[in-house]
Design brief:
With 112 residues, this protein is α+β, with helices and mostly antiparallel strands. The protein has one domain (4-111): Nuclear Transport Factor 2, Chain: A, CATH 3.10.450. The chain is built from 3 helices and 6 strands. A 6-stranded mixed sheet has the order 2-1-6-5-4-3. The protein is globular and about 35 Å long. The model has no long low-confidence stretch (mean pLDDT 97).
């Protein structure tokens, strides 16, 4: 059992190592990824999630997400990240909100 903050950190560390197995292991089988505030679903289920991030890691072997700030309220974690090292040369800021149960991240919203 992990705290919400520990799960968010575990997935961030795996993302930065591009360890697809460890990264995906943090997410629930029925993971839902949505845009915020529209709630449009962009990814649904662990297999689709794995495929998208596997391809992202292959296309961007030098990317790195630096945690700028983290807020935790109950089972919600909000991370503000600065992502560098993408193949297109564009650095970007990202805000991700994670809904966590005691074992996995169940939902993710990316602020658009």
């Amino acid at each position: 059992m992990y705290t919400p903050e520990q799960l968010a950190q575990k997935q961030l560390d795996a993302y930065n190592r591009q360890d697809i197995d460890e990264f995906v292991s943090v997410y629930a089988d029925d993971i839902v990824v949505m845009d915020f505030p529209s709630n449009n679903i962009t990814l649904l289920g662990k297999e689709e999630f794995r495929t998208r991030y596997h391809n992202l890691f292959l296309q961007n072997p030098n990317q790195h997400a630096e945690l700028k700030h983290r807020l935790v309220k109950g089972n919600i974690v909000i991370d503000h990240e600065y992502v560098t090292g993408r193949e297109n040369g564009i650095n970007t800021e990202a805000i991700a909100m994670y809904e966590v149960n005691h074992t996995h991240i169940r939902r993710v919203w990316f602020v658009k």
